[in-house]
Amino acid sequence: MARQLDSYSLCMYRNRSFQHDLPRPSEVIIPHASSSISLGSKLNFRAETRYQENPSRKSVLRHGFMWDGSIIDVSSSGKLVKEYVDDGRHEDAVQVYVKMLECGIPVEEFRFFPMLIKAFGAISDIEKVRQIHGHLLKLGALDDIYVLNSLLGVYWKCGVAEDAIQLFEKICTKDLVSWNTMISGFCHSGDYMGSLRIFSQMIRQHGVFPNRVACLSALSSCASIESLIHGREIHAFVVKNNFGDEFLFSALIDMYMKCGDVKNAEFIFGGILNDDSIKGNTVVWNVMISGYVSNGYLSQAVELFQEMLAIQILPDFSTMIAVSGLCSELLDLAVGKQIHVLAISFGLDNDSRVETALIDMYFKCGDPKSGLDIFRKSQNHNTVMWGAVISNCAQSGSPTEALELFHDYNIEYGFVDPVIVLAVLRACSSLILKGEGMEIHGLVVKSGFDSDVFVGGALVDMYAKCGDIESAQKVFHRLPSRDLVSWNALILGYAQNECPNETLKAFRDMQSELIQPNTVSCACILSVCALLSAMLICKEVHGYLLRQGFDSNVLISNSLITTYAKCGDINSSWVIFEKMSERNQISWNSILLGLGMYGHADKVFALFGKMKDAGTKPDHATFTALLSACSHAGRVEEGWKYFRSMVEDYKIEPQLEQYTCMVDLLGRADHLKQAYEMILMMPCVFDDRIWGSLLASCKSHGDERLAEVVASHIFKLDPASIGYRVLLANLYEDYGKWNEVTRVRTEIKGRGLKKRPGCSWIEIKNKTHTFTAGDSSHNQSEEIYAAIDSLTTQIAKAGCI
């Protein structure tokens, strides 16, 4: 009679082996032969049953049963289970064992439990694995270390680390396979410190010396967490025990490369080149090339790839992926095309991984058309390839294409992937498409990604870029956890939507949640300080940056130059610029613009010469700074010189910003007619600002007739403009044309236009006090207005108007 795993036995097993819930006993009872097969039915297999009934004998044999027309005994059933497992027919293997139970075969004589456990593990159903564990406990089969090790491996394969750990702790006599299974299990599950901890425990506490398999897993863990100290210890052990083979050498090179120790990686690789049996191994070369690329040793990676081809080592798909990434880093399209040709010649171009790497390379090297061509011709579309092409379209200035591809992807697959969602949300942000962004938000919620911190950050950014800061706040506050990226998205959103106070508060709240700001956070706060002219906060942020060592960052230095200039401290801007060890185009433009604001025209012109000598090419922003400096200093001749130089020497087509600077320069110098003609002749579309600049010049120089013409242009462009109407009314008032003054002001009133009240603020003892014109809400307003009246009286007594 077959053994039965009854309810009492299961409960005993449950208490002895696990601390968490198992299936109910009634669900896992293995019945007598005359009963229905609970184990088999519970497994719910769809495999075709191979046993055959004989009605006359009822198929019940003491030592065998019928299967595919043959009598199968204990020994041959084990071999059949092994055969099925080796062929990948795991469900059939389990069905053979279930039939043994049904027919009352003495399963305690079965010697292929490790293979049977492997079959259960391949089904990846943890509840079924726990059932066979309980069954083996009942049979007393867990005295066999091979069976225990098989169970350990299956628990790791099913992703239940707790079960594996508890079983491991109950093994009285652990062998090397037991330890190796735990070391590799922790490593593959992502618990790299756990893997190294078990590795150390095996040696120090139990005196078991690792073999090459344990060393491979431990080295992989060291590489993943960049633990160079542990990696070097394992390297020493490998050398001492002469474990050297191509797999260990590859693992050591990978570990050193990922830990940034290129010199030791080169030392190991150099030793390999003397061993002909390892020298021709493509994997070793691939690891070395990838390591060079990841560490920025791009020229060495190119040389190594050339050497690899020269000694006729055939590249594989990993080689093609590595060298495609190399071309992406080099931004070398010509070499990238050569790599593509090589991939075709070696027959590797149809591999989906190689195709994806080539698509990424073409996009990064500025040839999106070729990347899209590979994608459209590919027969190997998968989620990774879709993600690569959509992400690259969103990042390379083709957001519309990204959204169209996402639509096609959604039709083909019917579900969304987090990586693709991030890309299309970035596309919506670029195009300011709130409607499409909300649709994607709906898909995110439906797919259960709304709690993902990365997707949440992208949604915050999308809503903020689309001007809906309230929705951005709602998404942000609903996130179960918030990281630096999501905080930065909110802070940038506040700053972009002109909410300076909210920006500063979010910056403080982020730090109160122990999230440390990075260069992006600080650059954003500095832009708000520049907007508010908040010198005190600027200095506080600068101090923080110095303590964190961020002051050498180019982005931060550029932001500090601009902020100090706008806060009225051009000297600090200059000191920061002078101390910069590395400068980019923005660095030069920032200091030129700052110096120009303060009328240091001669210094601006001299610095522009140094900029050219340093090999930095000027751009539109550079000439805006130069022309603005000329305007502030009234240097018309220099202004014309730089304007012509921009067009003739640097082939830069002037844009509205540069034309506005020239109109302002000419207007200030009373060349009003010339300024008016320049506006009419410029090729770009004008806006109200350029006309407004000329209108201000007309008022300054008292040109009433031209002012009326300019005003008519402004009011056509912006009928709701009030500032320019007030300016025109003031001009009429200067000429004593009260009828015109009344007409303009009546028109303002009739249109319901209201001027935004002026606002000013002052910082006293780290507190900002804000004042709006006509406002008396401040708690010291009576004292403030009394002081103003006193000052006004003293000014009048001094004879000032």
TrEMBL record:
Q: Which InterPro entries match?
A: E2_motif, E_motif, PPR_At4g14850-like_plant, PPR_rpt, TPR-like_helical_dom_sf
Q: Which domain of life is it from?
A: Eukaryota
Annotated protein name in UniProt: Pentatricopeptide repeat-containing protein DOT4, chloroplastic
| PPR repeat residue intervals | 73-107, 175-210, 281-315, 483-517, 584-618, 619-649
Answer whether the UniProt record assigns the keyword Zinc-finger to this protein.
no
Pfam families the record matches: E_motif, Eplus_motif, PPR, PPR_2
Q: Which NCBIfam families match?
A: PPR
Q: What keywords sit in the KW lines? A: Repeat
Task: Write down the Gene3D superfamilies for this protein, in alphabetical order.
Answer: Tetratricopeptide repeat domain
Q: Which gene encodes it?
A: LOC107418396
Keyword check for Transmembrane? no
